[in-house]
Amino acid sequence: MISLLNSFFTSCYVVNNYYFDRFSAYECADPPVGWNSYTANADNSTWTFGEVAQYQCRDGYVPAAGSHTLQCKFKGGSTFWSDKPLNCESEYYVLLQQ
Fold first, then answer.
1. The whole model's pTM is what?
2. What's the domain count of the chain?
3. What is the mean pLDDT of residues 25-38?
């Protein structure tokens, strides 16, 4: 019985009073799409609790708003992304505005 309890406690962790089995998948939907940006690490087929999506602007575009990194989070029984995705605008547009 003690070894069973030890294996239970070493394979679980607690976040915001929720118990997680490290082998369970708490998945987020695919990361949101930003304007003229893409997820640089989009090789993930699933995005689980704690994973981070990293955004970059497409060639010829520069950051305008949003975040370069979003994290898959869990609260209140559901998963969500931590912020708004990176939105980029044309570098030529930015030059014309100066």
1. 0.67
2. 1
3. 89
